[in-house]
Amino acid sequence: MSFCMTSIAAQKLVSVSEAIELALENNYGIKIISNNKEIAKNNAGVLNSGYLPTVTSSSGATFNRDNLEAEFANGESTALNGAKSSRYNASINLNYTLFDGLGRYYDYKRLKETYKLSELQARETIENTIAQLYVVYYNVAQVTENVTVLEKTLTVSKDRITRASYQFEYGQGTMLNVLNAQVDINNDSINLINAKQQLVNTKRDLNVVLGNVISSEFRVDTTIDFKLDIDQNDLATKVKSNNVNLLQLDKNIMINTFIVKANKSGYLPSLGLTGSYGWNKGNNNAASFVAVSTNTGLSGGLSLSWNLFDGGATATRVSNAKIELENRSLEKESMLIDIERNFNNAWDDYQNKLTIFQVQENNIITSTNNFNRTQEKYKLGQATSIEFRQAQLNLINSELNRNQAKYAAKIAELTVLQLSGELLNIEF
């Protein structure tokens, strides 16, 4: 027993706050959503806005070898076989859209809102990951306390079989008491072995959430502090203003609003600017008046286009975008009803679990007193081994039920905080 306690004390303590830091740094789901947020940030940059011009370059070369028969205006004629000529060109071209019916303007706004939406999606992933972390962390804590209970139980059972053996040896007890004590030791040992294996498994689960960064043995903090000062009305108000799912729907409504306006740009004309700087050189054959010609120069112009009728494509896009916008608004109204219900259910569940935990705490006191009195009577020979075992089992069940109620109440509290958007704001 002393070796076991020393081993536990030597293990690294991973607190809740430290576990959260490790998850934020190493969890793969968080890393992926962070990369997706960077993609959305790039898409919302000026380089993807359509506000910048495009500049292209082009060049070319042409070679000809022709057989020619030429007749000039003065009546003379000539014939050339294998006449060679060549042409070269190079240019830099500029294209810039001055006005496109405000489609570019609203598309840029849509991309900005899409980036903000990606931030909310990242926050949702982080919230879900931290909520999962809490569940797994407190599962480890509960199993840790269960192991402690079962270790104490096994110690008591070993003391009991020692006492039963002495009593049998000195003729004050029967072999049946010894056998019953041995059976109970076997059962307690099996329960402890299973609990320890469960503890190993739950620690592995926790390490997965943390990105598998803990390589040594560790233990968790089993201390629980309830946020008993939280106010239901205050949190209910925050549900409407801070719930991450509702905030995402608000962004989607804004995005669809910009989509409607961008599609309406199809009703308006577009104005473009073009410019070019070019170089051309021609080496003509002997039949040409000019043997070699070279020219360079600038050119520029404006182009105006107006799609007066596109077969109804623009009208269809605008109509469908308006319907999508209405759907997003309906989704928000529906989600608001669901979230308010879920919050109220979660709050009631939290209050019930707190009450159950308090009842289990009181039950521990009763079970402990009953066990201590039964143990004293058993030592005095005034209680049978069956009565002693029953009192012991009652205490074990009370302690295990208390552990379960304790962490179930904490998880219920965290669910309330997550629904109200306050999960990432709590401190430990």
Key structural traits:
single chain, 428 residues, alpha+beta, four-stranded antiparallel sheet, two-stranded parallel sheet, 6 strands, 18% strand, elongated, disordered N terminus
Question: Could you characterize the architecture of this molecule?
Answer:
This protein is of the alpha+beta class and 428 residues long. It is 64% helix and 18% strand. The chain contains 9 helices and 6 strands; from the N terminus they run αβααββααβααββαα. Strands 2-3-5-6 form a 4-stranded antiparallel beta sheet, with no helix packed on it. A two-stranded parallel ribbon has the order 1-4. A hairpin with an 8-residue loop joins strand 5 and strand 6. Helix 4 runs antiparallel to helix 7 and helix 7 packs antiparallel against helix 8. The longest helix has 67 residues. It is elongated, with a radius of gyration of 40 Å. The N terminus is likely disordered.
How do the strands and helices of this protein lay out in sequence?
Layout: H1 2-10, E1 12-14, H2 16-26, H3 28-43, E2 54-71, E3 77-99, H4 103-169, H5 175-209, E4 218-220, H6 232-242, H7 244-264, E5 270-283, E6 292-305, H8 313-379, H9 385-419
Parallel strand pairs: 1-4
Antiparallel strand pairs: 2-3, 3-5, 5-6
Helix pairs in contact: 2-4, 3-4, 4-5, 4-7, 4-9, 6-8, 7-8, 8-9
